[in-house]
Each structure stands twice: as C-alpha cells, then as structure tokens.
Amino acid sequence: MPYFLRAIYSNIEWDNPDYRSWLQGNELPSCIVRDLRADDNALSLWEISDDQSNLLDIIAAFVSLSNGIKDDFDYALLSVNYLNEITFMPSRKPAITAYTNFNHYHHDIPNLSINQVVYFAYLLSRHGIFDRMGWKDIANRLKEAHTRSHLDLTKMKKRLKRQLGISE
Fold first, then answer.
1. Percentage of the chain exceeding pLDDT 70
2. Exposed, middle or buried by CB within 10 Å (0-12, 13-18, 19+), for 128?
3. Boundaries of domain holding 54
4. Based on the structure, what is the number of domains in the chain?
C-alpha cells in the first residue's frame, strides 16, 4: 500500500513521554501544530511507493529547495488508506524543486479547516510511521542526482550548492 510523506520538525515532539503526564485521552500536544503549517489552507504531502524505493529521492527533492542540510530529516509516513476519506482528497500538484524527476510525486490536500488539520494530526499521531533520514544520505543522493544531470541548479540556493560541492 502506498504512503504519503509529511515533513515534520521533530519526531521527538510527536511522542514525548513528558507530555503524557498532563494530556488527557487522545489529546495531542499543541507544539506539533508547527509541523502541520497549512500554506494557503493546504497540506503538502509526497507520494511514497509501496516498497519505499523512492523515499530517499523524494526527501532529496524536498531538501533541494533548502538553504542547506543542517540536520537529519524527520518525517512521517501515513498509509494512503487513511486519506481515502472525503475529508482528505490529495490532489497531484507538481512541486518546483531542483530535483525535477521527482516533482510529480507532490500532492496537496486543499481547502482544509483548522479542525481538519487537527484531525490529520490525530491520524498521523496514531497511524503514522515516524522516522529520520540521515543528512549524509540526503547529501550523497543530491550529489548523485547532480552527476546524472537530474538537478536544475537554478532552483538551488547557493549555500546548499556550496555545501554539496556543486558548481554551476
């Protein structure tokens, strides 16, 4: 079954044992809201194949727009089955990253209310697979993509290119 990837700020905040002492029932800590910033009332997701063979490339595409790789990349995967509701209708919206071969894996869930974003957070917290990709793996994949001429360097920030040792 395919997944959708959502970049998050920190895996730690989603399951911090310190929060359990004061949260009640199925409540979620409010600090996770920063991970679900909805731009133009839409959540950005990336389609991941069943076998996750495109995971590293999708993360590299996402990171290709950053100002540099400072830390490992935290993310959560959610089975597409949890989004097959009328509430969440992901629609393909190609990204505009430097790693152009993978831009078509990007989706948005548009027209979300705050209640729907909170419900998405609930689904992610209960059914998501939280993980982290090492920054060295991401950097190596971006370097490989550059070697294969799969990066549009005009879309990359100078600092990231310097960090990767890539020149135009």
1. 92
2. buried
3. 3-164
4. 1
